[in-house]
Design a protein that fits this description.
The protein has 247 residues and is α/β, with parallel strands linked by helices. Helix content is 33%, strand content 19%. It is built from 9 helices and 9 strands. The longest helix is centred in the last third of the chain and has 12 residues.
Amino acid sequence: MITKLLFIGHRGTRANSDENTIEAFKKALEFGANYVEFDVRKTKDERVVIIHDSTLDRTTNGSGLIKNLDYNEVLKYGTKNHKYKIPLLSDTLEGLMGRIKFMIEIKEDDLKDIILNLVKKFNLLDDCIFSGRNLAVLEYIKSAYPYSKTCYNITKGLGLRISDFLKLGKLKKLKFKPDMISLRSNLVNVEFIEICHTNNIKSLAWDFISYRDPLSIIKPMINMGIDGILFDDHRNIVKIKRWLEKT
């Protein structure tokens, strides 16, 4: 049985709940995730909120750019399906600390110090992975806190393309090595996983929501040696754990 696999709830869960909400995080926790992944942005009054898009439009019954709204304005709206409120990062960390760990996807570069200060405030550096698509931001975090954990979302990353990673990684000539690299599921292959491992980097896969049978994609990746899965459907966490118990 593979026991070190990271079971990560992608935006908590994107099935039978509303993504990036406390309720979604609790679903992932209930079904066995050891991390919840979520996205953070800053409001006009510099409150750090958990939401994927730069606007309210897709996921809530409101509209407008997050950066142009104060948090009290954001609170007027709820998520489209269940009318849940958009959570603050601080409330999420405080409410779930000790119960689950956190993967924080940094959507805006100027958030890095604010997020680090919040994480330090709750003494959660050991329980957080700092994720993002700007490699320079992750280098900054690693330089400031060498024992912090970083994850580079390389699929549309800024600073290192997947083709360059494969080339330089094979030669062990990477200038900066994040602790983890996440790649969109349809791009994951044995070469990517092996080059990650050659450089002591954990390999992660994300984006399974469009597959009719996500488990048929996830299981072969686990057999290839993937180190972590970002699950879009919390129910699949239990299914994979049961499958692993039988292997």
